[in-house]
Amino acid sequence: MATRSQSKFASSSRLRVLVFYLVMIGVAVGVFLLIDRAGNHLRVPGAAAPGASVLKAAPETINTVLHVLLALAVIILTTRAVGNLFSWLQQPPVIGEVIGGIMLGPSLLGRIAPGAMAYLLPLSVAPFLNVIAQLGVILYMFLVGMELDLKLVMKSGHASLAISHASILTPFLLGAALALGIYPLMVHNGVGFTSFALFLGVSMSVTAFPVLARILTDRGIAKTAMGSVALSCAAVDDVSAWCLLALVVSITQARVSGAIVTVLLTAAYIVFVFLVVRPAVQLLMPRLERSPELTRSGMAILFVAMLLSAMTTEYIGIHAIFGAFLLGAVIPHDSRVTAGLTHRLNDVISVLFLPAFFAFTGMRTQVALISGGQDWAICGLILLCACVGKFGGSLAAGKLTGLSWRDASALGVLMNTRGLVELIALNIGLDLGVISPTLFAMLVIMALVTTFLTTPIVHLLTRRHPWLPTPTPQPAFTNS
Question: Does 409 fall in a domain?
């Protein structure tokens, strides 16, 4: 009798979550269409000049190779020092590394010692830093894909799926609604409201899966029930957010007809990867794992496959990082190949390539462009919408799926982590011209503040009542 009652209760719970999920999707689509309809009637007053860029000056007649090497040395030392400081403060080192990169740009060094910045980071090295940064981001997203447990995503259950998508749709709609107010103030001429609203919504929706996993590991809760739920939600969130960003990029880079073609090609390529490439990878794995360590030939095969996948998505029109991430996702995360490749690449990417990306981002981040009460009010609204959207969406969905107030609150705080993944998305938006340098600086501040807040708030929630480990081991991700 009790078993029958429990079965009825479980069925009722699943039905309730399903109804909530369908209503949530329908309402989100309807609300965005209303926002888009209202926003397309907005007019941009005059020709808004895209903020001054520090990357568009004529190349200087200097020894470029020497300055690139000098710039890399300064970047590595600065980002590592600030990253270690933040690690000592029990914050994710990536926050300090990002701040270190911004310190070397016009926001700090360029203001207090413009001559030193001109010598250490001359404008002629920016294109080279960009190439190094893009390569680093491609390799980083490849490793993120490799550490993504697809079985965890597929078996995350209806609850994790509902929580994850609620944590995406709520901030997305708040960001799109905010676009109605700031579109005439922050947009360049030629950028349509739809592209602007979609990108602003996506920038609010991102959760940094690798940074979140590192926070869970550092707090010792990665193997708890709460950690398992957070990891599964973040994994679903990561995949969903990147697919959504790919859609936004395709719409921005082409007209409606071209965007439809891009979306169809993207969907076809995803199907191809999972139906053709994934079985081929599974057949190849035993051969690659015959040796105790991954051989150079095996690494060459994986790198060529990654580059081909990245080239394909770049050709389709949705950025190379999607192809790298997608190929990484079909490589078994618990294989010796993944462990060996991660062990060899992780330190090089973290110490050399990603700091170049942080410095390049810092050279593009001009906090001084945020001037006056109106700009700082907009920056505050962006931060408020990002936090309320992520926290509120996760909290509401978590409570509906049966979590306690404490667990649902902690999950909302964890899902608010953005970090490096947000910066990658923001740089794509700036490259496409969808966001201005001023808005770019505001969104960088939002990414830093939301990531910074995660660790101390989670510490407060777990200090007196820590979560107990689950008896079944869960995968622990350590990439930051």
Answer: yes
Quote the distance between the C-alpha of residue 32 and its chain's center.
22
**Does residue 51 lie within any of the structural domains?**
no
Please count the structural domains in the chain: 1
What's 315's domain CATH number? 1.20.1530.20
Domain membership of residue 298 as a residue range: 61-462
> Is residue 15 within 8 Å of residue 400, measured between CB atoms?
no
Q: Identify whether the C-beta of residue 198 lies closer than 8 Å to the C-beta of residue 28.
A: no
- Residue 46 gets the label, from left (phi > 0), alpha (psi -120 to 50) or beta, of left
pLDDT along the chain (480 residues), means of 10: 58 73 82 83 58 44 75 91 87 84 87 86 84 88 80 64 84 91 80 85 82 72 70 74 76 64 82 91 85 82 92 83 86 84 86 87 86 89 91 85 80 84 84 87 90 83 58 38
Asked, for residue 471, whether it belongs to a domain, the answer is no
Rounded Cα distance, 56 and 62, in Å: 16
- End-to-end Cα, the chain, rounded Å: 49
Taking the CB of residue 345, how many other CB atoms lie within 10 A of it? 18
470 belongs to a structural domain: no
Dist. CA 331–CA 258, nearest whole Å: 31
Contacts of 42-48 with C-beta under 8 Å, sequence gap 24+, read: 42/180, 42/183, 42/184, 42/193, 43/184, 44/183, 44/184, 44/187, 44/189, 45/184, 47/189, 48/187, 48/188, 48/189, 48/436
Residue-wise pLDDT for 29-72, tens only, equals 888 888 888 887 777 665 444 444 444 443 444 477 888 888 89
